[in-house]
Each structure stands twice: as structure tokens, then as C-alpha cells.
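Memo subject: From amino acid sequence to C-alpha cells
Keywords: amino acid chain, backbone geometry, C-alpha cells, three-dimensional fold.
Body of memo: The sequence and its C-alpha cells, given next.
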Amino acid sequence: MKSAGIDIGSRTVKLAIFEDGRLLTAKKRENSFDPLTVCRELLAGEEFDCITATGYGRHLFAEKTGANTVTELKANAAGAHWLFPSCRTVIDIGGQDTKALSVDSEGRLLRFEMNDKCAAGTGRFLEVMAMALATQVADFASLAKASAQAYPISSTCTVFAESEVVSLIARGVGRSNIARGIVESIAVRTASLAQRVGAAGEVLFAGGVALNQAVVDALAARLRVQLHVPEDPQIVAAIGCALQGNTAVRQADRAADWLAGGKR
């Protein structure tokens, strides 16, 4: 049986497909103001017997396809356990929120903390900070690592932090020092969240921000733990979704009909 998992996040849509415990497909696309079209494009040509959705767009997708849904928390816990069974803590920094999870030896969610009321420290935060520093998100890590000294960023709000960065540049503070300060501020906030769920031992770092090596290094230093980053840290929740699959054939038929442009 082929089981698919789709994670419809605020910035990207991720897909994972399993068969007999093997990961067959793992891919992603940037999201848009029309997430269902992005889902269609991502699923085009793929075969599956059932599909489970998570993320911000999971309910809209389920309404159209009959897909099962699961929370991002449970999906991340299951996906992290499949990737690194020894991890008992999961940190996920996505486009709009930050989550810290504690999981048991079977990958079940025990407790969690979320920073979901403010985008500070998330992928969107990094995008805004990169624009303020006149650089690209892909180059942010190298800019931050070019400085050995961080210039403290006091604002925790994205809007205020952007204004603070612009002011610091006007005062002649080096861009790399500012970038390093931004990275350290993300690490401090994230470490505090993780410590509230009892982060210890081995920790898995998921989400798009885990692609930023400067943040990875700063967070590992703050937590003083072994920090695992998957080859593609954005696919963790999609993997967890796929692992939730069942044998609901009618579900696959309805999803296939939707993908083909049907209306039932």
C-alpha cells in the first residue's frame, strides 16, 4: 500500500509517499495564495492508496479530497521518530511559527510549546531581516558567520526588529555583526521554548530555518545537546503524515477524482 502525506505550510507544501515502510517520494514546492493549485501540481503523476494532510491548509485540502488530517505536532513527532528514533525533543521553526515537542520512545507526542502569536524567529522573520540587510535568505548564514561578534537585537517583534536593524545600519554597525545578533536572538528564543519541554539528549531540528547553518550552530551552542538536522528538514511533518496512512480506498478514489478536475 502506498501512503501519502502532505504538509501544507504557510511558505511551502511538502509531499512524502511511503510503501511498505520505505520512503519512495519526498518533494516540495513554494506555496502561494492558491494552495490547492500548488497541491495539485505537487501530486500530479503520483500514485497513492490514501493521503493524510497537515499544516495550515489541511482542512481545506481535506474538504476537497476526503483526506485524513493530523496536527502538525503529531506529524512532526512521528516523522522525527522515523528519521532519528533516539531523539526525544523536536524543534520545528517554520514560516510562521516555532514549535518545541517532547516525544516518547515510540514517537508519541508528550508535551509541546508553541510561539504562534508572533512571527519573531520564524522563516518570515528571517526573510524580513534579510531584506533589511540587503541580502538574500540563502546568504544570511554566511553573512552571520563572517562575524565573531554579535550586535544585540533587543526587539522581539518582526516590525520593530526591522526598524531596529535599519537604524543600526544607519549608525554604521556592520551588517555581519547585525546578522549574527539576529541569529543569536533566534537561538535564545528557541532554546527557551525547547527548555520548557525538557530538551535533553539528542534533539531534531526541523523546518525551513534549519537550513540556516548559523542558526543551527547558535542553537546547538545554547542547548548544549546533539542537534540532528535531516537532509531535508522541511519534509519531516509530511513523513509523519504518510506514516499515519490507512486503507481507506474511497479516500484515494476521491482524491484522484479531485486531481483529475472532478467535482464530487
Q: What stands out?
A: DSSP finds ten helices and ten strands in the chain. The radius of gyration is 19 Å. The chain has a mean pLDDT of 92. Residues 175-195 form the longest helix (21 residues).
